[in-house]
Design goal:
329 residues; six-stranded parallel β-sheet; homodimer; inorganic pyrophosphatase (n-terminal core); 19% strand; Diaminopimelate Epimerase, Chain A, domain 1; 2 domains
């Protein structure tokens, strides 16, 4: 069993580093923090480092201040570096990571198995679930702090139990984590009830520009550089806004145009159903998942919009013809 | 045990009605639907009736079309009427309800015990949890449809596991419901991914007016009748918007001014911490809970705003003095 080999390395080594992908999310933070605390319970040294800072919403979680940010300095010695939720060795964004013995723990089907040890469980709703399993295999008692971080992993990676990776097992584990002292209300309050005014104002400005094209079944929102004037908001505050147009009944594609500089727009695309918006993004040199992709298009707003919608229309027409053929008519 | 008496009545009777409070919510719909299906499994007739229509977001839930809306017609015969999640006999809003043998099932501490049989469990996160317990006591196998409705009850009444009533037991029950076939992703998709464009536009317009007063620690939003011009939205679509200003870090009170007619504003108040906004609302003839209250104030916007903030300032000053005294200085 791969977990047996990982546990052996954890017990035999002394110094470990834990990292996750760039722009770390809840599963990154929760799983690396939980693993660091588990290693410390074994009497080991554990350093947590991510290339990018954690989202400010996480700043109230216990022990979070220990997380280091930025490139891995030269000459640091570790018996292993754990990469959490990274599909490829480039994902952590740390130049020197290839110099180390890597333990790759992930739940994505397209993991490239880049580690010295690779543990990929595509059935796990979060890497946090895998760390929970590992701790159980080690017969380790989990502290309230570890349980809290594992709960953060699972709750965020299931979209607070909204996504299709939410199963009976997800709830079973959360029941156990709550018994161990994880406080669901505290975690939700940490993650969601500490917005800044600028985030809310930005959300308002963006959503008030909503336009629907019922023929193409698209919902479009837009944000311009001037919207940031006089409000305390940063680019990262727009994350998640595209879910609002995506949530509209009857809309198949949500499009978010975000002015990124002079004559340049970052375009976010979200699709429901069988439409592959990664292919649309690829036409402009972008990429992503079939249902969530992005690209950058140069030009004035109307021009950029025209280009994107032309590509989208071609894609929609191709789909209609395909459906026609598939129906056998 | 009161549940024993309820079960006896369920087994001995033949025709039952199920209802809940006005403006039914997820726990109303979920618990009355689950109970109706349980009664049918016992071979009984079960009629579900609420005074008000269920929220349109619930229209995709299985069997929901059976729910009748409006006043209880004269002359209907029932062996018992179940009231779900109603603190008082007036809550269902049905004039003739007092004519029946009422089985009152609720989880609110201030329930007035108005039924012939009263089962109030203030430890339950939702009435859905109580119906789950009842089915278990009856040793009844739950169908996927019943499990789905109980999941709707529990998920919505815990704010999708955000509120402080979310416990290990909440997750244990949800694990069992998922094993029985309840699909968390389907339920979340039903309830949250079917907005209308007007709801999103209204949200945008309201939030883009956000104002913060850091001295008073208030966040204010406003919506005017003219905002509804040209968009497909109704008054009920503003529900929940006040949670956005309430979510801002450092804000103690969120205020939502909603123009209700000529020179008339409906004011929603939400407080964090120890401030009792029900007392502020009471000054204008309104009421509610200490942390969530509302009132109507007549006048032009600036005038209404001035009145409300003057009352709020008095309240905040009274609190400061009280804190001073409580500190023993």
């Amino acid at each position: 069993m791969i977990t047996g080999q990982i546990i052996e390395r954890m017990r035999s080594g002394n110094r470990f580093m834990l990292t996750s992908h760039r722009k770390p999310d809840g599963d990154s933070i929760g799983s690396e923090m939980a693993m660091a605390l588990i290693l410390e319970r074994l009497g080991k040294v554990a350093v947590v480092r991510n290339r990018d800072a954690y989202p400010s919403a996480y700043r109230r979680l216990p022990g979070i201040e220990r997380i280091l940010t930025g490139e891995l300095p030269e000459g640091e010695q570790y018996d292993a570096v754990f990469t959490m939720e990274c599909t490829e060795i480039e994902r952590p964004g740390l130049a020197r990571i290839g110099d180390y013995f890597i333990i790759n723990i992930d739940h994505h089907h397209n993991n490239t198995m880049f580690g010295a040890l690779n543990w990929v469980d595509i059935g796990a709703c979060a890497v946090g679930e895998m760390i929970f399993d590992l701790a159980r295999e080690m017969k380790l008692d989990l502290t309230t702090e570890i349980a809290t971080h594992l709960y953060v992993s699972i709750a965020t990676d299931t979209g607070f139990f909204h996504f299709s990776n939410t199963t009976a097992r997800t709830f079973e584990i959360c029941a156990e984590l709550a018994r161990l002292g994880a406080n669901p209300n505290f975690v939700a309050d940490c993650l969601y009830d500490h917005n800044r005014p600028g985030q809310i104002q930005l959300l308002g400005k963006t959503l008030s520009r909503l336009e629907i094209d019922w023929e193409m079944r698209t919902a479009t929102i837009a944000l311009f550089q001037s919207d940031f004037d006089g409000i305390d908001a940063v680019d990262g505050d727009t994350e998640g806004i595209i879910n609002y147009p995506r949530s509209i009944d009857g809309v198949d594609v949500a499009v978010f145009f975000k002015e990124a500089g002079t004559r340049s727009f970052r375009v976010g695309l979200r699709a429901r159903k069988d439409l592959n918006v990664a292919e649309v993004a690829a036409e402009f040199g972008g990429g992503g998942h079939p249902q969530a992709s992005g690209c950058t298009i140069e030009g004035e707003y109307e021009e950029v919009r025209g280009k994107l919608f032309a590509a989208l229309r071609r894609k929609l027409q191709a789909r209609s013809s395909a459906a026609w053929t598939a129906d056998g008519r």
